[in-house]
Amino acid sequence: MTARTPDSARDIPEATVARLPVYLRALTGLAEGGTTTCSSEELAATAGVNSAKLRKDLSYLGSYGTRGVGYDVEYLRYQIAREIGVTQDWPVVIVGIGNLGHALANYSGFRSRGFRVVALLDADPDRHDEVVAGLDVRSFEDLEAIVKEDAVSIGVIATPAVAAQSVADRMVAAGITSILNFAPTVLTVPDGVDVRKVDLSIELQILAYHEQRKSIAPGSEVVS
């Protein structure tokens, strides 16, 4: 996956694209703390990367730093936000309003980062009387109408794994071209549709691995 700048034909590597939101979050924190300019070392430390990698990443966007002065925090924040497309308002639909769906619907970070949840959908009729984060939970059967009415291109799947593929298929058929998948399963989608997978259990297992390594005494081995 690559990102294409609005005014040029150059492509940005996938690894760099993945770090741009991290830089944006770091710059937002610096701006909220009253910092107006920062060096690449300061920004890299805030973002949790090394400064050489940060400078390389930002070089794909253009030259926004001044030697001896550093980066203008607000200007660089705007340029990165423009690059990744969050200076505009992106309508989002969430499918699957269980515990995770509730949490996502109530997440205030969507709005502050350029995303507007326009609909909450669930296949369970018992949930259709619920109001979550100021939105009525609607039937999954309304998906096509909502996508058309609100020009939705981003969908979030928070369903059980068994339902995720059929939900993705219907999202794609309705015109959604980007999917954020929280279901613990791998989705199959056609070319031109981007999927980002968030598997909380895998992240926890990775942390468990590191915790296990910390507990092993130097020179000892894990016995299976």
Automatic annotation (TrEMBL):
Matching Gene3D superfamilies: NAD(P)-binding Rossmann-like Domain (3.40.50.720), Winged helix-like DNA-binding domain superfamily/Winged helix DNA-binding domain (1.10.10.10)
Alphabetical list of InterPro entries matching this protein: CoA-bd, NAD(P)-bd_dom_sf, Rex_actinobacterial-type, Rex_DNA-bd_C_dom, Tscrpt_rep_Rex, WH-like_DNA-bd_sf, WH_DNA-bd_sf
Primary localization class, coarse: cytoplasm
Binding site for NAD(+): G96, I97, G98, N99, L100, G101
DNA-binding region(s) from the entry: 22-61
Keywords: Cytoplasm, DNA-binding, NAD, Repressor, Transcription, Transcription regulation
Keyword Cell inner membrane among record annotations: no
SUPFAM superfamilies xref list: NAD(P)-binding Rossmann-fold domains, Winged helix' DNA-binding domain
Domain CoA-binding: 85-186
One Pfam match: Put_DNA-bind_N
Localization: Cytoplasm
Subunit structure: Homodimer.
Entry's family note: Belongs to the transcriptional regulatory Rex family.
Function of the protein: Modulates transcription in response to changes in cellular NADH/NAD(+) redox state.
Xref: PANTHER family: REDOX-SENSING TRANSCRIPTIONAL REPRESSOR REX, REDOX-SENSING TRANSCRIPTIONAL REPRESSOR REX 1
Protein's UniProt name: Redox-sensing transcriptional repressor Rex
Species assigned in the record: Nocardioides pinisoli
Primary gene name: rex
